[in-house]
Amino acid sequence: MYNKRNNLDIETHTRQTNSISLVFQVEYRVDSCGMDHKEGNGCVDVMKTSLPLQTGGYVIYGVAHQHSGGIGSTLYGQDGRVICSSIPKYGNGNEAGNESGYIVGMSTCYPKPGSMKIMDGETLTLESNYNSTKEHTGVMGLFYILVAEQLPYQHLRHSTRSSFFMDSNNMLLDS
Q: What would the pLDDT profile of 16-69 be if each residue is shown by its tens digit?
């Protein structure tokens, strides 16, 4: 079951990027899927958003950011290929950096140099998944990628860092 959300009630920000104005939701709420869908029965909240990356290049690093309840995020290229999937690691102790029930790390992607290219203007899609057996507030679905415009063996060495934010006005909900 995919949880349907009507209230995305935390703050909304606007960011100007090369004459394109983006409005994005920094935090949102995941509602509980209800009593008939408990652990193991598909209680997953899926949020998707798409955004064009004005300047493409070669992906050299990627990682998602999620809060407790997160079960992973995937960044897709326009053709549906997986650019990077990032899975949370939950703590299992009491000490700092290993707090039980909290995300203490996310898996990262380091594609082989030159193997993952994003074209100029390519539309990327972010999918962020949360366990919705209970309500979670203040969750996030962010994805960070580091894109090199040229490969190291080419003459120009330059990289740009991009952040991919959930867009509360252009969300696609699966059902």
A: 333 333 445 567 788 888 765 555 557 998 888 888 988 999 999 999 999 988
Range of the domain at 29: 12-164
Is-contact 131 12, C-beta < 8 A?
no
Residues in contact with 172: Cβ distance below 8 Å, sequence separation at least 6, in sequence order:
48, 49, 50
Report CA 10 to chain centroid distance, whole Å. Answer: 18
What are 147's two structure tokens?
Answer: 């894109």
Residue 170 forms part of a structural domain: no
Compute the distance between CA of residue 64 and CA of residue 137 in angstroms, rounded to an integer: 18
Of residues 33, 26, 1, the one with CA closest to residue 12: 26
The pTM score is 0.71
- pLDDT per residue as tens digits for the range 91-122: 999 999 999 999 999 999 999 999 999 999 99
Residue 31 belongs to a domain with what CATH number?
2.60.120
Instruction: Give CA–CA dist 12/37, Å, rounded.
Output: 31
In a domain, 169, yes or no: no
